[in-house]
Design goal:
Blueprint (H helix, E strand, L loop, with lengths): L5 H15 L15 H8 L4 H7 L2 E13 L3 E8 L2 E8 H4 L1 H8 L6 E10 L5 E12 L15 H6 L1 H7 L1 H22 L4 E2 L5 E2 L11 E4 L4 E5 L4 H10 L3 E9 L11 E10 L3 H20 L3 E4 L2 E4 L5 E4 H8 L11 H10 L10 H12 L8 E4 L21 E6 L2 E8 L4 H16 L10 H8 L5 E7 H9 L16
């Protein structure tokens, strides 16, 4: 959309005048010698007299975030990736031509400045400018206020402005990078190998989700955007890599909410000769160390609630969670589907026709118990028919060796001891196909090649997925997943 504001027109006129005066408003020949944050860190503790004795000289480059004009002299605030530094412009030092150029600069312009560091009468660390060069003319004014609910969607759509003028937003994404780096180092230090698996897949596998479809012209075939990397990572376990992980982008053609975005980042890792109990211990260690590394403590606040990540965390089965938070539930709901359906009706749940017994029980669990787990909690032993890729529990084959990590009532991680029996796996896939035929659009497809891989022999293995976006939400006190994704998906 064309901008016809007075400010835009005035800046466009300045741009034209600069070009007519022979000034390139977008040059690429300025190299800063330092960044603002390093200058402040190294020289912020020196007195006015010490700076006068040293006369340190620097060249910096950044965006003008504020201008105080006093006629023949001005103060500006320059911001680069590391922080801000004040600069002093004086006509008799810069000279008439350079000062005239400066006067055509506006807030939001990007400039390069060379000068001497000193302290002002008010003791503020400042760069006295000897030279100034315009590096990029901004044609739009910076927003004066970029806060408040009325601007939330505008902030998401123009994230470049959001980060530019809101330091707390930038801090969220700096923390996100630190979180991902910590996870990488944590796993690599435990002999995990980072790998990459296909985003375009002929079968949408590894999760119960509705995929995005696309078409590859050269191959003449329909493909799906990845909903999970699981089946490819487990093929690598078959190959003998034994410990693998991927920090991956997944795509699911589902609803958008404060907890869901159509594309999201997931950590998935698999370890041969391990069980889901081993991964509970590993997950406690990973996330506790992550919290400690970022905040120096194991207690943090999320949206007014104090969360304590000190291990060990609570562990409870799905069925015991229902018993705890729905004490009126008849005991036979766990063995009789009709009883489970009746109880779900008493709860006011609208359970779709044809839903399996295990899925009815999960509907009951999610309605009565899931949201009650505020502190970090491992919920274990899910019904078999909601876990088509999980290993059956030895003591009760109607359940699987699986856990979900819940914090603030939300799933952060999902893990299980992997099913490595190819005969059992094929039957689970066939059962999923029957559910798909009965109308379950999220039921898993048959993957013949994955079954073939299992037929070569996969060692006993445990695997886990951790939602990076939700983890970052927790660790940055962000209420919405859009707050931790640089460019979230939005309606037109």
């Amino acid at each position: 959309m064309e901008d016809k504001s007075v400010e835009f027109q005035q800046r466009t006129i300045k741009l034209k005048e600069l070009r007519e005066a022979g000034v390139n408003p977008y040059p690429n020949d300025f190299k800063p010698s330092a960044i603002c944050g390093d200058i402040v860190k190294e020289y912020g503790g020196l007195s006015k007299e010490e700076l006068e004795a040293k006369k340190p000289t620097f060249s910096i480059a950044g965006r003008i975030m504020a201008i105080r004009d006093f006629g023949k002299a001005s103060f500006i605030q320059v911001q680069d990736r590391s922080g801000k530094l004040q600069a002093y412009m004086k006509k008799e030092i810069l000279g008439d031509e350079a000062y005239a150029l400066f006067k055509k600069c506006d807030m939001g312009d990007i400039v390069g400045i060379e000068g001497i560091l000193f302290r002002t009468r008010t003791n503020e660390l400042t760069l006295e400018s000897l030279k100034i060069k315009l590096l990029a003319k901004g044609l739009h004014p910076l927003p004066e206020k970029w806060h408040g609910l009325t601007d939330v969607e505008a902030r998401y759509r123009q994230r470049y402005l959001d980060i530019m003028v809101n330091p707390e937003v930038k801090d969220v994404f700096l923390k996100r990078t630190a979180i991902v780096q910590h996870i990488r180092e944590f796993l690599k230090n435990r002999d995990y190998l980072e790998v990459e698996t296909p985003m375009l897949q002929p079968i949408a596998g590894g999760a119960a989700a509705k995929p995005f479809k696309t078409f590859h012209n050269a191959l003449g075939m329909e493909l799906y955007l990845r909903i999970a990397p699981e089946l490819y990572l487990k093929r690598l376990i078959v190959a003998g890599l034994e410990r693998v992980f991927e920090i991956n982008r997944n795509f699911r053609n589902e609803g958008i909410s404060t907890q869901h975005n159509p594309e999201f980042t997931m950590l998935e890792f698999y370890q041969a000769y391990a069980t889901f109990e081993d991964l509970m211990d590993l997950t406690e260690e990973l996330i506790s160390s992550l919290v400690k590394n970022i905040y120096g403590t194991l207690e943090i606040e999320y949206q007014g609630t104090r969360l304590d990540f000190t291990a060990p965390w609570t562990r409870i089965t799905v069925f015991d969670a229902i018993r705890k938070f729905a004490p009126n539930a008849p005991e036979d709901i766990f063995t009789d589907k009709e009883s489970a359906l009746r109880f779900s009706n008493e709860l006011g749940l609208k359970v779709p026709e044809g839903l399996s017994h295990g899925k009815v029980l999960i509907e009951i669990f999610e309605s009565t118990a899931e949201h009650r787990f505020i502190q970090p909690t491992f919920v274990t032993h899910y019904p078999l028919d909601v876990s088509p890729l999980s290993r059956k529990n030895e003591a009760n084959p109607r359940l699987v060796d699986r856990f979900e990590l819940l914090v603030m009532g939300k799933e952060i991680a999902n893990s299980f001891s992997e099913l490595n029996d190819p005969v059992d796996q094929k039957e689970r896939f066939l059962s999923q196909l029957r559910e798909k035929a009965a109308g379950d659009v999220e039921a898993h497809e048959m993957d013949e090649d994955y079954v073939r891989a299992l037929e070569y022999g996969m060692p006993p293995t445990a695997g886990e997925g951790i939602g990076i976006d939700r983890l970052v939400m927790l660790l940055t006190n962000s209420p919405s997943i859009r707050d931790v994704i640089l460019f979230p998906q939005l309606k037109k």
